[in-house]
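Researcher: Going back to the complex we discussed earlier. I've cleaned up the inputs and rechecked each line, so this should be the final set. Can you rerun the prediction on the complete assembly and write out the structure?
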Amino acid sequence: MTGEPPWVRLDPRMLLVHPLDELRKFIVPLAAAALFGASQGGGPYVAILAIVVPIAIGVVRYLTTSYRIADGRVELRRGLLNRQRLSTPVDRVRTVDLTASLIHRVIGLTTVRIGTGGAGNDDGDLTLDGLTVEQGRTLRATLLTDQRPVTEETAVQSPAAARFEPGWLRFAPFTSAGLAILGGLVGGGGQLLSELDLQVDLPAEDLAGLAAVVVAVGLLLLVLVLTLVGYLVANWGFTLRRDGDTWQVSRGLLTTRETSIDVERLAGVAVAEPPGLRLARGARLTAIVTGLGSAQSGSRVLVPPAPAAVVRVAGGAVLGSDEPLVAPLTPHGAAAVRRRWVRALGPAALVAALPALLVMVGGPGWLLVITVLVLLAGAGLAVDRVRALGHAVVAGHFVARSGSLLRHREALAVSHVIGWSFRDTWFQRRAGLTTLAATTAGGSGKVEALDVPVREAVGVAAAVTPDLVAQFTAGEPVHS
Amino acid sequence: MTELRDPAHRVSPRARTLWRLQSGIGGAVVVLGLVVAAATWREYDGRWWVVLVAAVLAAAYAVVVPQWRFAVHRWEITDTAVYTQRGWWARERRIAPMSRVQTVDLAEGPLDRLFGLTTLTVTTASAAGPLRVEGLERGLALQLSQRLTRNAEDAGGDAT
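Model: Rerun complete. Updated structure for the full complex:
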């Protein structure tokens, strides 16, 4: 490269997008002003202002924003009064997302977000709002491959590791979003019902009953439709494919979003199987990306709720071996099982004792049903949690699974383990158990195996990082 | 491969006194608050019993926990790794390779300074939290932080 590369403006078509955007932001105050202004008789000025101001802001923003790649840094400058100059080294770039809202898509533009995974929330992110899709893709290729020379054949687009199928829609009601909506509606619906009851108790008892049923069915249908629409909007056209040195996830019906994850920063994956999804034989796949915390969760989705088999295949493709996701796990033994039971039944017993006490002091006998139900729920939870417990070291990955309501199986590449933590309470120590965690620079910062027998835990850590752990195992302390 | 041994070194014995003072002050503040409440709010006859129980609990905490904490707290730094152990009821052992050390911090609160003690914090790239050694003598802590910084530099890489 000769001389300083010039500063480049964003795409001029942003002149169209910015005013529309500003208009959207100001729509409420503008409408209020227009109404107020009209009643005061100052109509034309307000209308002119409403058109001129957004356009002016858009033009200024277009004229004052420019970017360049120079000396191995991406630089962005923007602002008229408040001049801002953001710059980040290219080799710190961890993800490049292309997001296109509906407006952007209509005129063929995309927003490029360059993620550096800095500790500060979004401060580390450089956003270039408004490049052509072509420019965006080229920029992404430059940024993500600059770090290593790429051979030509890897540049050829490979077939997708996973691709959206309409049948996946059946998982929509089982996603956490679906359950949250359902919960909200049941809560709100209950209130609604009680109010309805008050109003319709005059005509006839059975009419009120009918109304309740109709409302309940209506609510259920509404939830179904909402979750389906939500799933479609977020995940329509989903594909996961390897492109050179990155994994690319693209999805979205209205706003399309293309996320790239640098292969070298992909520390591992997590398969999440909440109970709803498990019932429908579904699962979700996320990536553990070095330098990306769990806060930037949007960047980490590899496969949205989909058939478990598809998730395993995709995860296998990402990890380079499906062993970590399908291999049988080492169970944690009798002491760990006991601990799950005690921890599930203990709180349940406390809750269950209350109705039982009430019955003893003369409460109605049917309260005992609650006691039994709570205890059964606790037992169910314990059984499910026991079934989940397990860990393994297979195919160069540390694998751990736990949880019931939030069951997840995580596989972390051995080369991304940056330390260990053994955490145990007095009860755990007495049972000879410890919670083993491999720390890593991505995701929640660690992959945790709950209640592992102590010797087993040390064995696992030593198998994964022999040099590191061997010096601290029982024997002569090395004084230094 | 059997079990992990304890890290080689204890923290300064003065740390135990410091922790006693800290938990003593904390407990005294709570009990004092309760005394004031009991003196002003006269609805409940057994209120002085509550204060008494709280005072006994606070005293027990100030006696037992610092001792326990001191028995648990240990550290070791080798050429290739940092190994710490802390906590009391819940014990946490952390091992971090030298090549993953990002920053080394020394911190002293006002009470720490009174005792000449320092907290050494070793951060890695993991969001799971840093390794921490409390109650090190100031001179030793300085020496350790210099050694850690030098070793981490030698290990190279961007520590992720």
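Model: Worth noting: The mean pLDDT of chain B is 89.
Researcher: Good, that matches what I expected from the previous run.
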